[in-house]
Design goal:
The chain contains eleven helices and 35 strands. Strand 23 and strand 24 form a beta hairpin. It has 586 residues and is an alpha/beta fold. Helix 2 packs parallel to helix 9. The strands form eight sheets. Strands 11, 12, 13, 14, 15, 16 and 28 form a seven-stranded mixed β-sheet that branches. It has four domains: 108 residues, Rieske [2Fe-2S] iron-sulphur domain (Rieske Iron-sulfur Protein, 3-layer Sandwich), CATH 2.102.10; 177 residues, FAD/NAD(P)-binding domain (3-Layer(bba) Sandwich), CATH 3.50.50; 114 residues, FAD/NAD(P)-binding domain, CATH 3.50.50.60; 66 residues, Enolase-like, domain 1. InterPro entries: FAD-oxidoreductase/Apoptosis (IPR050446), FAD/NAD-bd_sf (IPR036188), FAD/NAD-binding_dom (IPR023753), FAD/NAD-linked_Rdtase_dimer_sf (IPR016156), Reductase_C (IPR028202), Rieske_2Fe-2S (IPR017941), Rieske_2Fe-2S_sf (IPR036922). This is Apoptosis-inducing factor 3. One of its GO terms (molecular function) is oxidoreductase activity, acting on NAD(P)H. Belongs to the FAD-dependent oxidoreductase family.
C-alpha cells in the first residue's frame, strides 16, 4: 500500500525541486523521464507484463469483436521507468516499461479520472498525481487509496520489435473494475437480529471494510447501518459542488451492495452498545447482535455558542440535501461562512459565482495558518479576496438575527453587523461517539476511540476507524494521532477487515488530502502537525509553489499548488520509509 512506514532510516533522498516541464504533447510521454523518480523506493507488487488473461478480471468474452489489438510503439520507444498513454482505436491504455518488461493497464485513475501518465511510477506501482491512489502495474489492483475500484489490465506482447496490446473494448471504455467478491452463504433475512459483522457508518471506512471482507472471501452476513438517508456518497465533493445530488455523488448503488450481499440500513442511528452481550441498540428500539463490530461514525459539528439558534437558513454542511439548500438559498443573496476550515473555505469559493456577496468570519488572523503556515495562508486569502470574498478575521459570531424566522443579519462580537440570507457554520468537528459513553469501549478525553495498529479497541470483537479514532502512527514513534482524511478512512476500513479475518496488516499509507478552490487544488501529503518551519519553492503570488513542512531536520509533510506531481513523489519517498532532510530541500 504505497511503501512501508517503518521507523525512518537516515537515508538522504534528494527531491527534485525544479518546476516541472510543461506536459509533453507528443505521444503523451510521462514527465518522469527515463528513470523512476525514486530509485530507492521499495517495490509494491510484482513486476511483469499485464495479466496473461484479462478475462480473469472481466466477464468472459469469446467473440473476437469484443477485443481490439493494436501495435502501439517500437520496443525501443520506451526506456525503463517510462510511461506512455497509447491509443488502441477503441480507447486508450497506459503502457509502462520497467526492467525491460512491458505492462498495460487503464490510463485513468478510477477515483476522479486523473491521467496516470502524469503520475509517479516506482518499482511495481503507479501513484495518481492528483490524490495519491496507487495501483499495481502487474495486476491493476488498488494498493493505496482513495477510491474503491482497480484498473483493468491488458495483454502485452512483443513481435518483431513492435509492442502489441490486446484489450477488451468494454474495459477500455470503463477504465475501472471491481475486485471479485464472495457472496453470503447464509440465508439472508433482514429481520434476523444477528449479523456476523455489523458496521456502524457508511462512509469510506465502513464501505471499504465491507467490500474488503467480501473481496477476501468472507461468506457470512454483513450489515452496514447509517444515520444517513442516502446510500454511500462522496462527502468531500459536498463543499466543492453544492448543486450535486446524492445520486450524482453516490459511491455505490443499492443494486451493487445487494449484488454483493452487503445489507444497508439507512436512517438507522445506533444509540448504545453492550460489549458483554455483543449487542447494538438503535434509536427505533431494534437490537442486533454481532460477532465483530466496526465503528466508523465519523465526526459531527463542534457546538458553537451564539444567540438566535432558532433562526432558519443556518446550516452545518453534512448531507447533499444541506449542500443543495445552501446553493439554492444563496442564489443572488448574501452568504456568510463562519469558520475558515477547508470545508468552510471551499463553500465560500463555490458560492462566489452564485451569491450577491460572500463573507467569511474567522478567529485566526490568517486562514489555514495551523495546517499550511502563515505564508501559504496569506497567499490563499489573496485568491479569495480577488474573487470578491470579504474576510472578518480575529472575530466571532455573537448573534443570528432573523425576520419572520428567516436569517437576515449576523452580528459579530466586534459589533459589526453583516447582511445574511444564508449562513454556513464550519468551525470544526468532534468525534460522533456520544452513544459509546455508557459502554466500556475506551475513549480519550476528547471522545476519540483509541485503537491499536490493527484498528482493534480494548473490547474483544470491536474495531473502529476513520475520523473517530486515534491510532499508532509509525513516523511519530507510534504516537496515537487522529488524521481525519478521506483517504485515511479507506485505509482504516481495509486494515480492520483484514484484522477480523485474522490477516493482520499494519497501516502503511502516507496521509494524503486535497482541497479545491476556484479551479485550483491544494495537495498535501504527510503528517505535519507541530511543524516548526516551512520551506517554500516556486511563486506564492502566482500560486505555483511547493511547501515543505519540517520538524527539526526532517521533512514531515509537503503541500503544493500547480506543481504536480511533486506531492505524490514525496509521498513515494515517505512511504518507502526514507527520510527527507531539511538540507535536501533548502
Amino acid at each position: 500500500m504505497g511503501g512501508c512506514f517503518s521507523k525512518p532510516k537516515p537515508v538522504e533522498v534528494k527531491v527534485e525541486l525544479s518546476l516541472l516541464e510543461k506536459e509533453k504533447e507528443v505521444d503523451g510521454l510521462s514527465p518522469n523521464g527515463k528513470a523512476s523518480p525514486f530509485a530507492d523506493c521499495r517495490p509494491n507488487g510484482a513486476l511483469g507484463h499485464g495479466s496473461d488473461d484479462d478475462s480473469a478480471q472481466l466477464p468472459l468474452y469469446h467473440k473476437p469483436r469484443d477485443y481490439v489489438e493494436a501495435s502501439v510503439c517500437h520496443v525501443k520507444d520506451l526506456e525503463n521507468g517510462q510511461m506512455r498513454e497509447v491509443d488502441l482505436g477503441s480507447g486508450r491504455a497506459l503502457l509502462i516499461k520497467e526492467h525491460g518488461e512491458f505492462s498495460a493497464l487503464g490510463h485513468k485513475c478510477p477515483h476522479y479520472g486523473a491521467p496516470l501518465v502524469k503520475g509517479v511510477l516506482s518499482k511495481g506501482h503507479v501513484r495518481c498525481p492528483w490524490h495519491g491512489a496507487c495501483f499495481n502495474i502487474a495486476t491493476g489492483d488498488i494498493e493505496d487509496f482513495p477510491g474503491l475500484d482497480s484498473l483493468p489490465t491488458f495483454q502485452v506482447r512483443v513481435e518483431k520489435d513492435k509492442v502489441i496490446i490486446r484489450a477488451n473494448k468494454q474495459a477500455l471504455q470503463s477504465q475501472k473494475r471491481s475486485k471479485p467478491m464472495a457472496r453470503c452463504s447464509a440465508v439472508l433475512n433482514s429481520t434476523t437480529g444477528f449479523s456476523h459483522v455489523v458496521i456502524i457508518g457508511s462512509g469510506p471506512a465502513g464501505l471499504v471494510c465491507a467490500e474488503t471482507l467480501r473481496q477476501e472471501g468472507f461468506t457470512d452476513r454483513i450489515v452496514m447501518c447509517t444515520m444517513d438517508i442516502h446510500p454511500p456518497y462522496d462527502r468531500p465533493k459536498l463543499s466543492k459542488s453544492l448543486d450535486s445530488t446524492a445520486e450524482q455523488l453516490r459511491l455505490r448503488s443499492t443494486d451493487f451492495l445487494q449484488d454483493h450481499d452487503i445489507e444497508l440500513f439507512t436512517d438507522k442511528e445506533a444509540v448504545a452498545i453492550d460489549v458483554k452481550t455483543r449487542t447494538v441498540t438503535f434509536e427505533d428500539g431494534v437490537t442486533m447482535e454481532y460477532r465483530n463490530l466496526f465503528i466508523a461514525t465519523g465526526s459531527k459539528p463542534k457546538p458553537m455558542n451564539y444567540k438566535g439558534k432558532d433562526v432558519k437558513n443556518v446550516f452545518h454542511l453534512r448531507t447533499p440535501d444541506d449542500a443543495n439548500s445552501i446553493a439554492r438559498l444563496a442564489n443572488n443573496k448574501n452568504a456568510v461562512i463562519v469558520g475558515t476550515s477547508f470545508i468552510g473555505m471551499e463553500v465560500a469559493a463555490a458560492l462566489t459565482d452564485k451569491a450577491h456577496s460572500v463573507s467569511v468570519i474567522g478567529i485566526e488572523s490568517v486562514t489555514f495558518k495551523k495546517a499550511l503556515g502563515e505564508k501559504v495562508g496569506k497567499a490563499i486569502m489573496k485568491l479569495f479576496e480577488a474573487n470578491r470574498v470579504k474576510f472578518y478575521m480575529l472575530n466571532e459570531v455573537s448573534e443570528m438575527i432573523g425576520h419572520h424566522g428567516q436569517l437576515k443579519e449576523v452580528v459579530l462580537k466586534s459589533g459589526k453587523v453583516l447582511r445574511a440570507d444564508v449562513c454556513v457554520i464550519s468551525t470544526g468537528s468532534v468525534p460522533a461517539t456520544d452513544f459509546l459513553k455508557q459502554s466500556s469501549i475506551h475513549m480519550d478525553t476528547k471522545g476519540f476511540i483509541t485503537v491499536n495498529k490493527m484498528m482493534q479497541t480494548n473490547c474483544d470483537g470491536v474495531f473502529a476507524g476513520g475520523d473517530v479514532v486515534v491510532f499508532p502512527f509509525p513516523p511519530r514513534n507510534n504516537k496515537k494521532v487522529n488524521i481525519p482524511h478521506w483517504q485515511m478512512a479507506h485505509v482504516h476500513g481495509r486494515v480492520a477487515a483484514l484484522s477480523m479475518m485474522g490477516r493482520a496488516m499494519e497501516i502503511k499509507s502516507v496521509p494524503y488530502f486535497w482541497s479545491a478552490m476556484f479551479g485550483k487544488t491544494i495537495r498535501y501529503a504527510g503528517y505535519g502537525d507541530g511543524f516548526d518551519d516551512v520551506i517554500i519553492q516556486g511563486d506564492l503570488d502566482d500560486l505555483r509553489f511547493v511547501a515543505f513542512y519540517t520538524r527539526g531536520e526532517e521533512v514531515v509533510a509537503v503541500a503544493s499548488m500547480n506543481y504536480d506531481p511533486i506531492v505524490s513523489r514525496v509521498a513515494e519517498v515517505l512511504g518507502s520509509g526514507k527520510m527527507i532532510r531539511k538540507r535536501d530541500v533548502e
